[in-house]
Design goal:
The protein is an alpha+beta fold. It contains nine helices and nine strands. It folds into two domains: about 110 residues, Jelly Rolls (Sandwich), CATH 2.60.120; about 100 residues, Homeodomain-like (Arc Repressor Mutant, subunit A, Orthogonal Bundle). The strands form two sheets. The protein has a five-stranded antiparallel sheet.
Length: about 250
Amino acid sequence: MPRPAESRAAPLVEHRRYRPQADGHQHGYHQLLFGLAGATELELDGHGYRVDDRTGLIVPAGSHHDYLGHDGNLQLVADFPAQSVALPARLVARPRTFALDGAFGSRVRALAARRAAAAARGPQHDWQLAATLAAALADRLGMPADGEVFPLMAVDAYLRANLAAPLRVPELAGHFGWSARRFQTLFAEAFGDTPHRYQTRLRLDCALQWLSNPRLPLAEIALMSGYPDQTTFTRSFSRRFGLPPGAWRAGARG
């Protein structure tokens, strides 16, 4: 069952079934629906959408949506407050369906199985799953031929591929053929953040995923995430998540 509309500072990832009676609401966070079984019908902004075991849907924050679940429907639902996980703002600014096929579909189903099998529930599990789903979705959507002048997904993919590299805005802007000033303006409009703050979210999202591997030392995760040392990494991680990475990892095991 969907939770009441509310604002969230942290993401939430869980399985949900929708009732066979028509209902509707809106909420202040973005929502991603990944179909697992059956089907759910939704209407957003006068357009109809269907989520089933082959289809997912982006529901933007603030968008009123009516929904109706059919018998046997099951979705993995991720509620993403703005600027929680690293996804470009423009990517989730309008309703959009995506196919759950190939490696991406297998990845989503594996994550859904992990959520179902989790003995414990807590913010660590939600953050790790949300960060992994966001990265998989960004990779799946790739570079859409949407006719936009600013290469949104190409920039996102470049930042993900060069996570540990120092971010120098003039060099990044030049790589995509823009002046630094114009690039900063377009980036903020498309991503809803500055390049440096978005890169920090990307780095820490990846760190969350690496922390789930107990064999990776914290110092190595710090370097893989683009931090010069473990101390700087710990300070940045704690500022965002409220716990140092060692305590976060220990809590995720509980």
